[in-house]
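Board notes (copied after class):
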Amino acid sequence: MTSQATDIDEQSTDARGGEPLKRSLARALRRQKLRALLLIAPLLAFIVLGFLMPIGSMLFRSVENPQITDILPRTVVALADWDATSDELPSEAVYTALVSDLRIAIEERTAMTMARRMNYELAGFTTMVRRASRPLRRLGDDFDGSYRELMIDAHRDWGDVATWRALKAYSSPFTVGYYLSAVDYTMVSGEIEPLPDNRSIHLMLFWRTAWMSGLICFLTLLLGYPIAFLLANVKERYANLLLIMVLLPFWTSLLVRTSAWKVLLQDQGVINQLLVWIGLVADDNRLTMINNKFGVIVAMTHILLPFMILPLYSVMKTVPPSYVRAAKSLGANDWTAFWRVYFPQSVPGIGAGAILVFIMAVGYYITPELVGGPSGMFISNRIAHQWNVSGNWGLVGALGTILLVAVLVLYWVYDKIVGIDNVKLG
């Protein structure tokens, strides 16, 4: 009986074209999948081009190190047999290879590319290459002297073992050197060791960015929760007006809002002038509220406050008022009804707002740059400096990768403690 049913099914045809029904259904299904793929193709392309490719490029740049091997290939090969742990300079053959590579690099105008790469690790390397370029341009093919003496005469650091240790340490086409620099370590001596205190800045900036972002997140919650509660529980006509006031900052440029805080917080600003006028502060002892951590915290709390209020409001709006009334009818006072009934139902909004505000605060750049000063600088400002001023794209990639991984780890910890399924936007 089953065999007969199968034969009938295989022999069934589409009445319109005489085509087997199973094949017709498969074709319709493929057509439906193709249509769905075409609909999501623009979004998929945007994610790949605007998100995945930049992150991939950042990851690659953080380990890419082709400058030395491409520009000094003979020198790299010759240095492979030199013992970097010894106190003796490389052999004459290494200096000969260096001169040969540098002459080609000078002619092709790539010598300074290599010099800048090494200058990130060993200060003064660009000066060494620039000084060596002058005699090498005049060097004839019939030179029969010592290339070692020629280079040391051009700059004495070519006779320093530390120079050659650094050159060998960073001669690989791929390196962890950028990541070491990102956490205030170096391997210029051939071994991994911490940077001097006067050059150690990145770990401090990571820590400052983390705790200040956490504090800003807490302050936005402290200020935003009552506002969101008010929005969710007042009459609708008042709620709409208050909501417009919450959204009003979005209609003003971020740069304008930050500049306004500079006007308010500076020594001759509105707040100090008011405090002096009412006698709380002496004219010669005005409060320092700008170009420091305080200014960054105040300005960023104000700027990010709507991003905490909106998720809270959207969740609170869904909490039925009858729950609190029922708790009060059973004998609970106002505080108990709020804490035991209302607050637990608003936790998803707290989670959504906290994640949103913290991640945005970690990556903020303009506000710390304008009102922070040296003591209020975030890691994002250091990344921007390395990109725009130093041009150290490898270090930029390493710092960005570490920041990305740190945020993902925090996100994972949050998921384990709170549960990402409990996060709601309404």
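Comment from the instructor: The beta strands are 185-186, 193-194. The chain is about 70% helix and 0% strand.
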